[in-house]
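User: Predict structure, ligand zinc ion.
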Amino acid sequence: MKLILGVDTSCDDTGVGLVDLETGEVRANVVASQDDVHAAFGGVVPERASREHLAVIDATFDRALERAGATRDDVHAVAATYGPGLVGALLVGLTWAKAFAWARGRPFRAVHHLEGHVASAGPPEAGVPELCLVASGGHTSLFRIDAQGVPSELGRTRDDAAGEAFDKVARLLGLPFPGGPALADLATKGQPDGIDLPTPLKGQDGFDFSFSGLKTAVAVHLERDPNVPRADLAAAFEDRVVASLVNTLTRAAERFGIDRVVVVGGVAANARLRAALEATDLTVRMPLPGLATDNGAMIALAARNAWLRSGTIALPIDADWSRDASPYLPLDEALRAAS
Ligand code: KG4
Ligand code: ZN
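Assistant: Predicted complex:
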């Protein structure tokens, strides 16, 4: 068995994945969640996140090996996220993975976190070009993917990410951390139409997103009418986020004549978004459960794609050793630097 080990510690989850080097099959994908550590604070505490990664990364790797029925000797290549993310958290996974690869004489690749999300739904079987919407807690961007799976950005959020808006509005509604799934759950019990909330950037010509105005509109609504049914407010908020994502996606599909779409990132788990996408004429791919939110397997998949593109896994051995943790890292710059 020949495996690629992928590691993601960009935020508050320790993700270790093992992907078959030859077939791209995900053999294990273990994510150690830190939700319990951060819940008391209502959000991620960066220093606690770094310490927790360090405490659990060895055991998470062992669990992944066990799931894959593999040993350390089966790991033939190693990849880890180097940015963007929390710098202390990134450093733990990146340094750990580099050390493992160096000690075992294996090729190492530093991967951009978004390239991981883009790769998480697997190869585009129906072909390219394809549109890719990344909607997570840290990012919301629309990409066009052309030959060889290289993404180019069409638009991005001007303020909050979609998942971040879910988390912040959940907090306004008094829901527990992490807020996205809790808000989605509450929204199933409400009616979205009776509440006056705007759909962000509704009339725009471009492909950007914006969610902080909508979040403020929810806060104003709550202030003016503290007795507003929370489930209705949650449903209306979720409805407008979904409308904004789906409208932008369908407009881009029309503009570029591309009807193949892949939707990735934590918000791809949202049931209302999935239903709205099904109602369009688009051909939609999504990651398997467990691959939409942050994980290590997607980093291994992205590294595999890059190695396939370059035609070899035997990268110049020093190509990625020097790549340091980068909290701020635009994807286009990273791709230029890697090519
Ligand atoms: O991709 P991800 O695991 O982490 C980042 O890279 O940020 O995404 C996590 C985000 C969180 O903001 C979470 O609230 C959101 O995805 N999320 C959801 C749902 N499940 C997770 N948002 C809406 N509905 C969901 N079902
Ligand atoms: Zn992510």
